[in-house]
Amino acid sequence: MSVNQQAHTGPPYGQPQPGYQGYQQPAYGGQSLPGVPQAQYGAYNGPVPGYQQPVPPQGYFPSLGFPLKGSPVSLNSDTSSLAPNFIGSLRAPPTSGAPPPASGASHPSGPLAYSQFEHGDVQNGIPASAAPVQRPPASQPFLPGSAPTPVSQISTFQQYGPPPASVQQLRNHMAGMTIGSTAASAPPPAGLGYGVGPSSYPPTTGAPRPPAMPGPPLPGQTVAAPPSSQPNHVSSPPPPSTMAGLHPGPPMSGLHGPPPPTHPPQPGYPMQQNGSFGQMRGPQPNYGGAYPGAPNYGSPPGPPPPPKRLDPDSIPSPQLNELPPQQKPRHRIDPDAIPSPIQVIEDDRNNRGSEPFVTGVRGQVPPLVTTNFLVKDQGNASPRYIRCTSYNIPCTSDMAKQSQVPLAAVIKPLAALPPEETLPYLVDHGESGPVRCNRCKAYMCPFMQFIEGGRRFQCCFCSCVTEVPPHYFQHLDHTGKRVDFYDRPELSLGSYEFLATVDYCKNNKFPSPPAFIFMIDVSYNAVKSGLVRLICEELKSLLDYLPREGNMEESAIRVGFVTYNKVLHFYNVKSSLAQPQMMVVSDVADMFVPLLDGFLVNVNESRTVIASLLDQIPEMFADTRETETVFAPVIQAGLEALKAAECAGKLFIFHTSLPIAEAPGKLKNRDDRKLINTDKEKTLFQPQTSFYNNLAKDCVAQGCCVDLFLFPNQYLDVATLGVVPYQTGGSIYKYAYFQLETDQYRFLNDLRRDVQKEVGFDAVMRVRTSTGIRATDFFGAFYMSNTTDVEMAGLDCDKTITVEFKHDDKLSEDSGALLQCALLYTSCAGQRRLRIHNLSLNCCTQLADLYRNCETDTLINYLAKFAYRGVLSSPVKTVRDALINQCAQILACYRKNCASPSSAGQLILPECMKLLPVYLNCVLKSDVLQPGPEVTTDDRAYIRQLVTSMDVAETNVFFYPRLLPLTKADVDSDSLPAAIRNSEERLSKGDIYLLENGLNIFVWVGVSVQQGLIQNLFGVSSFSQISNALSTLPVLENPFSKKVRSIVDMLQGQRSRYMKLIVVKQEDKLEMLFKHFLVEDKSLTGGASYVDFLCHMHKEIRQLLS
Ligand SMILES: [Zn+2]
After folding, report:
1. Which segments of 512-648 does DSSP mark as H helices, in order?
2. Which positions ≥6 away from 634 have C-beta within 8 Å?
3. Average pLDDT value for residue range 839-855
4. Are 472 and 454 in contact, with CB atoms under 8 Å apart?
5. Alpha carbon distance 648, 301 (integer Å)
6. How far apart are CA 760 and CA 927, in angstroms?
């Protein structure tokens, strides 16, 4: 029953909202959104020219924003005693594996009919070896303008030669500097880590060492560790990452299980010389009690009572009297002696931020996400598109199981690139479409091997041989490489796009341009809060900023409008109408769209009618008394409209309350905090009805992506309302207790970015792998109807999919492992495309190589997503225990198989994983796995879904927030002040700090901050006058205010969501909220401090080893 009614004409709504500033924000200043480059696909004119020295990024910071290289680290006075053990670069050389084969791609299937091409002269594609020699030494300047290094230039025999003299000398030098018996063969210094060829590492000894070796080495056992078992990146004199504070010395032994009582302290014990270990520290402020999390971890053996075991301060050492006097005060682990995230980030930035990351080498570990670096594609996908937990995969599944290191890739197929980097080229093969393997359907890529003079190619994924289509034939040069190698992106680059043919389109029809439908809740709360007026006012200008393709003058995207409460109102905004027309559908049980013509329109053509509608909507519902809403029918209406228009699209739904009105998908309030920590807690994360899962499935089939903006004043069941956005590849934004004055700026920024950002529709992603491994599990916002295809109604530049791999056969060190991620999608102009990302990884037979090429940030991204999915089906405690256990196994395996022999009392961490304990503890303490009393059920469901689509940079800062001392900022420089560790003891009450985690920015003001600084930043004369209701910093004309605001703007520009700014005064009520993010400290909800957790991990590892 549809009713046509002429909308009455209200007075034009022309008054700008107070505080509304149009498009003046730095991050959203107009058509081109920083960080969201326009899609411009120029003709491919050969390979990317040599790396050009970039102009300083203007407001774009790929994934970070830490100070540029060279910024001084601001150390608190006590940080000067940083233990040398943990100073050093993160990374080891990419490989120490066997020398590469002469041939660029090996033939896993054994001898083939094409033996004439197998004499080692075929060098097609990327060299098979990780061959660090191919990478210029860190000190070698990259020559601007130099031609891309043809991969075949690199002569593989180089790798068999002796290591460069300088490296050898350094190794000798380092060996001379090592202390004691723990490291007879020292690793190269950090800066040269990548210059060392594999041959400089003698082969490892095959036999595993005994699990634990308390005391001196056994007779006949060599003390020197095999070099490959050493972390290779220690920049100062150090043994492997021995946890000095946890050394088996008698003082600590009481903490860590049965001590070796009769052993004298070992000679050459590094921390004794450092001296920092003996430093006494007071208890943490506010957390004087015993370790509250201890009971969760089971009861450890040994004499001291369990709750105290992990609190070094409270444990008298049983052997105290037997100690040499100088060791007696060593009671407490010095936080400066345990691995510091800040130091690791800083080291990586210094070591790797100065030169571009060139992707021509297999298995290369990229710089950290916190390092600002540029990428040059030479055959492997940029780490902005794909990051892996390890770049060296164990050859066998037994090895992988033994290590427990998950093999996963975090893929962001449409990632935004900085302006200095080139977008993937678009390759058009005309009607014949992309060239693919006949058997596995992999797309042409740099790793395919051309044979028989170029008439056929052998697939690098399945080894099948395919005829080269006549139009694609090209001769090979004397190295076996096609002579058009550099003219074709798909032969020379890691990432590129193909124009899809009609075969790749739904129903064999080219798609129409997508549509955006804006669906606005006009119930009482939405109108009363000013939200409806705000949205309508914003849309009037925002519609001019819809995504456009390349140089197109206007967006091809059509728009439509719906308002709703218990019923739905559709609007006809056809350009020929003088006034918009409203059609009401009150039969929400069987949703249909009452009009076809005039619902989805071109913005320019219908500009006047749309403007009139947006003026009238707030007036029409100004006096509404309707408080109830429907929700599922709204999505159904959008879906039906897209179906009728035969296009894909996105619904922007602005919603305020639990949908309790009588309609399909009606929900009840089932929130129950009593379920926390029970076996039923998982139900809080599950949808309360399967209705929305079925709806999501229909939406995906149509390419209908849902972005949901929530404005709740109470529980509205995010776990259920989020199902459709989540499974369609959409986003959820939540503004609890929305207040126009304080929240509109954040909401409008999010909306602008969400509407403008690059997005693909009707997307299907498949990840192909070379023989031996296969993608087995997927995490992210998508739908899967089979085991291989990840379907997303929409996929934007921020969305990430984490893919796990498992072995199904043996891998070989020679051939390595390949991934090819192919994303089929419809562009915002309606063009069907394939985006291809390729990545080659090394394979290893030595566990040490696995541990040396891991990336902890990516590992944490995977582990967090794995755990956050686990809470849907298992009690939270089970999920937490499983996480701890897996990480303990990872570290125990390293200790057992890779670390040099040493006392069992020592905690030895792989260099690349030395932050695993601190980051893992942050995941365990997060709101999803250990909620505080102020965290609502909706918050937890929201965070759970959010994290599942995060990339590595986002999970990194989300779990370990960035803490910057603002009062240390240099007002004359563009750089950020050096970050400090997230602990209250690092804060000084005379300073102002900023903490950001991707969702919030806290500005913390100490009680003793100089009055002048307060005046400059807040415009008030004293600490007590600072309002903690501020949501923005006042605009004041002085250098400090300008500097702080520019830092805030810079950080906002780096994140995919506009962060909520909260001013916190020391000793104020809000400070508890802030302290929740000081993740190295004990949390009020029972989360362990970093030090305590490290002790706990150590105990777990020792139990596994004994
Ligand atoms: Zn194949």
Report:
1. 524-528, 531-542, 607-620, 632-645
2. 519, 562, 564, 568, 651, 653, 655
3. 97
4. no
5. 61
6. 32
Which residue(s) pair with 394 in the sheet? 844
Task: Find the 779 Cα to ligand 1 centroid distance in Å.
Answer: 25
Q: What values do phi and psi take at 831, rounded to 5?
A: -90, 135
CA of 771 to the centre of ligand 1 (A): 10
Tokens representing residue 1014 in the block: 């307060």
Answer yes or no: are the C-beta atoms of 350 and 121 closer than 8 Å: no
Cα–Cα distance, 389 to 858 (Å, whole number): 5
Could you give the dihedral angle defined by the CA atoms of residues 320, 321, 323 and 324, in that order, rounded to the nearest 10 degrees? Answer: 130
pLDDT digits (tens, 9 = 90+) for 381-400: 999 999 999 999 999 999 99
Cα 462 to averaged position of ligand 1 atoms, centre (Å): 4
CA distance 474 to 485: 9
379 Cα to the center of ligand 1, angstroms: 18
Kindly report whether the global pTM for this prediction surpasses the value 0.90: no
Q: Residue 519 and residue 551: Cα distance in Å, rounded? A: 29
Specify the length of the chain in residues: 1106
DSSP-derived 3-state class of residue 386: strand
Backbone angles phi, psi at 319, to 5 degrees: -95, 15
Torsion of CA 149, 151, 156, 161, to 10 degrees: 20
Retrieve residue 580's tokens.
């918009």
Residues 996/962, Cβ–Cβ less than 8 Å:
yes
The alpha carbon of 506 and the centre of ligand 1 are apart by a number of angstroms equal to: 24
Count the neighbouring beta carbons within 10 Å of the beta carbon of residue 719.
24
Ligand 1 mean position, distance from CA 287 (Å): 59
CA of 84 to the centre of ligand 1 (A): 49
Closest CA to 899 of 187, 236, 347: 187
Closest to 710 measured CA to CA, from 687, 741, 743: 743
State the distance from the centre of ligand 1 to the C-alpha of 453, rounded, in angstroms. Answer: 19
Distance from Cα 20 to the centre of ligand 1, integer Å: 56
Give the tens place of pLDDT for each residue, 554-571: 999 999 999 999 999 999
Q: What is the pLDDT of residue 100?
A: 37
Burial class (CB in 10 A: 0-12, 13-18, 19+), 299: exposed
Q: Give whole-number Cα distances, 715 to 504, 523, 719, 731, 806, in Å.
A: 43, 16, 10, 19, 40
- Ligand 1 centre to CA of 102 (Å) is 22
Per-chain mean pLDDT for the chain: 77
Give the Cα-Cα-Cα angle 465, 377, 432 (nearest 5 degrees).
40
pLDDT at 90: 30
In this prediction, residue 933 carries a pLDDT of: 83
In a 3-state reduction of DSSP, which class is residue 1004? Answer: strand
pLDDT in tens, 409-429: 999 999 999 999 999 999 999
pLDDT at 1053: 93
Q: Residue 329 corresponds to which tokens in the numbers above?
A: 């005060």
CA of 698 to the centre of ligand 1 (A): 32
> Residue 476: helix, strand or coil by DSSP?
strand
Distance 964 CA to ligand 1 centre (A): 50
Could you report the per-residue pLDDT of 667-676, keeping only the tens digit for each? 999 999 999 9
593 Rama sector, left if φ>0, alpha if ψ -120 to 50, beta otherwise: beta
CA distances from 535 to 152, 654, 747, 875 (A): 57, 9, 10, 40
Ligand 1 center to 819 CA (angstroms): 12
| Beta strand 408-411 pairing with 801-807 | antiparallel
E strand or H helix at 1091: helix 1090-1105
Phi and psi angles of residue 758, each rounded to the nearest 5 degrees, phi first: -65, 135
Spatial distance between the Cα atoms of 350 and 368, rounded to a whole number of angstroms = 11
The three-state secondary structure class of 851 is helix
Please give the distance, rounded to the nearest whole angstrom, from the Cα atom of residue 665 to the centre of ligand 1: 45
Nearest to 980 by CA among 42, 72, 235: 72
